Amino acid sequence: MKALESKHALKQLSQAPAKGRRATREEAHTPEQRHRMIAEAAYYRAQQRGFDGGDMLRDWLDAEAEIDQVLPQAATH
């Protein structure tokens, strides 16, 4: 269930700003938005394991890879 919440949050964050119009990658996602998306995804990763143990850097790097996979797709839809 939490994984679905994370995926839903990523999808919401990756939506283009203007409905019915194509946005460029730069226009749709500022560096600040990308950073926020990565931070949220890393948080969800830590939350899934109950904030117990784990590696914060690994959470961040995995979240960054996940977000970078989502952003180009969102910019083309």
Which structural traits does this protein have?
77 residues, mainly alpha, 0% strand
Task: Summarize it.
The chain has 4 helices and no strands. The protein has helices at 2-13, 25-28, 31-48, 56-76.
What's the arrangement of secondary structure elements?
Elements: H1 2-13, H2 25-28, H3 31-48, H4 56-76
Helix pairs in contact: 1-3, 3-4
Can you walk through the features of this model?
The chain is mainly α and 77 residues long. The chain has one domain. Helices cover 71% and strands 0% of the residues. It has 4 helices and no strands. The protein has helices at 2-13, 25-28, 31-48, 56-76. The chain is elongated and about 35 Å long. It starts with a helix and ends with a helix. Residues 16-21 have low confidence and may be disordered.
Output the helix-strand order: HHHH
Distance between the termini: 26 Å
Q: What is the mean pLDDT?
A: 76
Class from helix and strand fractions: mainly alpha
Number of domains: 1
* Number of contiguous helices: 4
Oligomer: single chain
Beta content comes to under 5%
